[in-house]
Design brief:
The chain has 159 residues and is α+β, with helices and mostly antiparallel strands. It contains 5 helices and 5 strands, in the order H-E-H-E-E-H-H-E-E-H. The protein has 2 domains: 85 residues, START domain (Alpha-D-Glucose-1,6-Bisphosphate, Chain A, domain 4); 49 residues. A 5-stranded antiparallel beta sheet has the order 1-5-4-3-2. Helix 1 runs antiparallel to helix 3 and helix 3 packs antiparallel against helix 4. The protein starts with a helix and ends in a 5-residue tail after the last helix.
């Protein structure tokens, strides 16, 4: 179980970059200000614009979650407590020293706090396509999974 706990704590800071494609019938001129405003509100700044591929790169700092840091500390404390109980049964003559293992619990929260706060990039590109007599714009967004979920919820584009 301790191995699973260690991998769970490590996975809390894993990079989860994904790509989604959304389509809209709005014109590119009306989409761009809306997207720029959205990313400005999310504290992202324009890092670069590639006019050849029609791609914009945004960059912003993703803050670590205090709830997640506390949760991982409590979870590791519980796991270490279980380990201490097992060690009590295996080595009863050294039982007083095993309580010191619980002092390692805050290491999980500190690990998360140091690794989770990082600069994230979001790549945004818009491509125009025509189906029949109706023009469609396809918006491709590449970024962190949580940011893409927020993007999809806050802006009304078709998948």
């Amino acid at each position: 179980m301790m191995v699973g706990l260690v991998f769970f704590i490590r996975a809390s800071v894993k990079d989860r970059t994904e790509q989604i494609e959304l389509s809209t019938s709005e014109s590119e001129d009306s989409i761009l200000p809306k997207l720029q405003n959205y990313f400005d509100q999310r504290a992202y700044q324009v890092l670069g614009v590639d006019s050849v591929t029609n791609e914009v790169t945004f960059q912003g700092f993703v803050r670590p979650s205090l709830f997640m840091a506390i949760f991982l500390t409590l979870l590791s404390g519980l796991g270490l407590f279980c380990l201490v109980l097992v060690l009590f049964m295996l080595f009863p003559q050294m039982s007083n020293w095993f309580w010191l293992i619980l002092l390692l619990a805050p290491v999980a929260g500190r690990f998360y706090w140091q690794k989770a706060g990082r600069l994230e990039k979001v790549l945004l590109s818009i491509k125009s396509s025509t189906t029949g007599n109706q023009a469609q714009n396809i918006i491709t967004v590449t970024g962190h999974r949580d940011e893409l979920i927020q993007f999809r919820q806050n802006l009304s584009f078709q998948k």
